[in-house]
Amino acid sequence: MNVIQCKMARVALGWGTRDLARNAGVSPDTIARFERGEQLKGSTIATIQATLEAAGIEFIPENGGGPGVRLSRSTANT
């Protein structure tokens, strides 16, 4: 997960940085630092990514069109 994917995922879920922080069990400042491009521990990024995935986000790898995100089918249909 990169910075842009994190921001895109939040928007897709309708979450602000505080929502993501609360759900991931990290501080809002941690989310803000990551989205500014600052380095975080790999385990912290993994926790944030797992939280977004649990909420229904699928991360799309770089495949010629650039990395992205999408809502899983089950989330998109609710």
Question: How would you sum up this structure, described in words?
Answer:
The chain has 78 residues and is mostly helical. The protein is 56% helix and 10% strand. It has helices spanning 3-13, 17-24, 28-35, 42-54, 73-76; strands at residues 57-60, 68-71. Strands 1-2 form a two-stranded antiparallel ribbon. Helix 2 crosses helix 3 (28-35) and helix 2 (17-24) packs across helix 4 (42-54). The longest helix has 13 residues, at 42-54. The model has no long low-confidence stretch (mean pLDDT 91).
Helices and strands in order:
Elements: H1 3-13, H2 17-24, H3 28-35, H4 42-54, E1 57-60, E2 68-71, H5 73-76
Antiparallel strand pairs: 1-2
Summarize the structure.
This protein is mainly alpha-helical and 78 residues long. The chain has helices at residues 3-13, 17-24, 28-35, 42-54, 73-76, and strands at 57-60, 68-71. 56% of the residues lie in helices and 10% in strands.
Quaternary arrangement of the chains shown?
single chain
Write down the secondary-structure element order: HHHHEEH
How would you sum up the major sheet? Answer: 2 strands, antiparallel
Q: What ranges have pLDDT less than 50 throughout 5 or more consecutive residues?
A: none
**Cross-sheet strand order for the largest sheet:** 1-2
Terminal Cα span: 25 Å
Radius of gyration: 12 Å
Shape: globular
Task: Please give the number of β-strands.
Answer: 2
Mean pLDDT, as a whole number? Answer: 91
Strand content: 5-15%
Number of helices: 5
Structural class: mainly alpha
Helix % is 55-70%
